[in-house]
Design brief:
94 residues, elongated, three-stranded antiparallel β-sheet, 3 strands
C-alpha cells in the first residue's frame, strides 16, 4: 500500500486519467474529489461491498433454482398462459 500525505487543495494522480484531490479537511474528516473517466466506476467502500455481495449471490445457481426457473419459463414464458386458457375452454382466436 502506498501512503501519501496531502494538504487541502493538493492532488494525487493515478495513471494519466484519474485525479484524486483533497478538497477540505475538518477535524477527522477529509472531503475528496475524484475525477475519472465515465467507464471507471467509483464507489464508497460500503457500497462496493454491497454490490460485490449481491453479484456473488446472483452467481450462485443451484440445480433446484434452475428447475424452478424452468417451470416458470414453461408456465409463463413460452405461451403457457395461452395454452392454459385453451385447455380451460377459452376461445380460439383463429
Amino acid at each position: 500500500m502506498l501512503i501519501l500525505t496531502r494538504k487541502s487543495g493538493e492532488s494525487i494522480n493515478i495513471g494519466s486519467d484519474i485525479v484524486i484531490r483533497v478538497l477540505d479537511i475538518k477535524g477527522n474528516q477529509a472531503r475528496i474529489g475524484i475525477q475519472a473517466p465515465r467507464h471507471i466506476t467509483v464507489h464508497r467502500e460500503e457500497i462496493y461491498l454491497q454490490v460485490k455481495e449481491r453479484n456473488e449471490m446472483a452467481a450462485q445457481v443451484s440445480p433446484t433454482s434452475m428447475g424452478d426457473l424452468r417451470k416458470l419459463w414453461m408456465e409463463k414464458g413460452k405461451g403457457g398462459a395461452a395454452r392454459k386458457t385453451d385447455e380451460e375452454g377459452g376461445s380460439d382466436p383463429s
